[in-house]
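Recall the central idea of this unit: under ordinary conditions, the amino acid sequence of a chain determines the structure it adopts. In this exercise we apply that idea directly, starting from the sequence alone.
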Amino acid sequence: MVTTPCTWFEDYTAPSHWLGGFERERRPVRTLEALQALLAPHFALTRTLDLPFLIREHARKFQWSVALATGWIRR
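Accordingly, the structure predicted from this sequence is:
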């Protein structure tokens, strides 16, 4: 199982390591497509799912997001 909120920020990850969230040759690169390209030689994608999650920043502020979850089985 791999999960990601698909938020790519330079503060946390160098752009050279991003799996999505940018354009290559005028075409958007999506995180799921990049994961598939990296994992497909060794794993089969069995499921994708949106997983909501909540982050409490302080007593009165919360951040609600949805992560992409993917299930994989070794080939």
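Helices lie at 31-39.
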